[in-house]
Amino acid sequence: MNFKSLAALTLVASAAPLTMAGPLAYGLCQTGCNVLVGSCYAAAGFTFGVTIVAAPPAIMACNAGLGTCMATCATVALLAPTP
Q1: For the packed helices 23-44 and 57-76, what is the interaxial angle rounded to 10 degrees?
Q2: Which of these, 6, 28, 45, 73, is most buried using a 10 Å CB contact count?
Q3: Residue 44 near residue 62 (C-beta atoms within 8 A)
Q4: What's the pLDDT score for residue 33?
């Protein structure tokens, strides 16, 4: 890459506005939530993603935590500035 191309690329990249939507941050946050709920299920002796007819209280608590985590991701990570 020659100097003129590098200078042009730098100029274009520095002039680009900051994006206010964070799809990458949102995806990473959701992944973290799913890892945590998978660990919660494992601690309760179940497998995340398997259908349970009558969910015990531990699984209900895991699901409530997952819902809270996903809601937090939607309100925080989607609005985070992503360069």
Answers
A1: 170
A2: 73
A3: yes
A4: 94
